[in-house]
What does this fold into?
Amino acid sequence: MNLFRILTEEEKKEFRQWARDNYIPLDRISPVWHPEVQDECIKINLEKIKGEFDVILRTPVELTDEWMEGMAQVEIDELKDNNL
It folds into this structure.
């Protein structure tokens, strides 16, 4: 059972942009936000963490897009599991 409405591709872009414009990295991600917004917030957090990780190491460590997407998916899956 899906508690959120299905979005058009244009609406998905708008929801993700809303997250980019309004979400503060590493703040709480509300379970009442649409999953598109939650997913984008997770990506924002991973980008923030990656940037801090690179600074801490002070080396040109490159985290691939595949790694970032995998980490985002783990977070998304955990968020969905916790909201059941």
